[in-house]
Amino acid sequence: MTIWACVYMDRPYKNNFGRGKHMTEEKKSGAAMHIIGAVLCVVFGFFLVCNIIIIVKGTLHPETPPTVLGVAPMVVLSGSMSGTAEDHIEVGDLIFTKQADIDELKVGDVVAFMDGSIVVTHRIVSISADRTEFVTKGDANNTEDEPISADQIIGQYSGRIPKVGDFALFLQKPLGMVIFIGVPVCAFVVWDILRRRRETRAGDEEKEQLRRELERLKAEKPAE
User: Fold this and answer.
1) Residue burial 88-97, b: 16+ Cβ < 10 Å; e: rest
2) Torsion of CA 171, 172, 173, 178, to 10 degrees
3) Residue 154 and residue 65 in contact, taking contact as beta carbons nearer than 8 Å
4) pLDDT above 80: residue 105
5) Given this structure, which CATH class describes domain 65-168?
6) What is the pLDDT of residues 211-224, one digit of tens each?
7) What is the pTM of this model?
8) What are the residue ranges spanned by the domains of the chain?
9) CA separation (Å) from 168 to 33, 47, 61, 155?
10) Rounded CA gap, 78 and 90, in Å?
């Protein structure tokens, strides 16, 4: 009689093991999706905060390019720095400039400077002995620019992302922020809420199945 009971209980034990393994795989898959979603949410959130900072700074101080963490993103509108140089700049590029150390600047560096109300990004071709005047030139231009003072230099070129300038400008507009940042963030939040509810419901159903299985086993267990 005891042997029969052990053999009989072996079947639900195997089923529970398989079900538990399936639940473990589902949990691993859900955890991976949660991590991916969280990373995307952080990335989109970062871009959202950067856009807000740029918009606010640009509104409060329109005379200079706004910066985020010491870096000023700017969109290139002319081809004066196009060419084959390693640090060439093309129309439509999104470029980044960092704060320039006037004492460390040298011939060949690319700097951004104010020419009236316009930001120009050109290469330094000569520096005065007292480092108070700098002469610049666009790589694609035939003539040098008028000398500029150190006070006009607002940053040193540090890198670019090719051909995403128009997209970056669109992101700063309300519609662009809603479409490319607000919608994905909201979608992730909704997805996460639904996922948690689904996991909770699945867990409750599993507990109910186990409870019924135990009750059935108790009811069918033969008397000693």
Assistant:
1) bbbebbbbbb
2) 50
3) yes
4) yes
5) mainly beta
6) 888 888 877 766 55
7) 0.62
8) 2-57+174-220, 65-168
9) 28, 10, 19, 20
10) 8
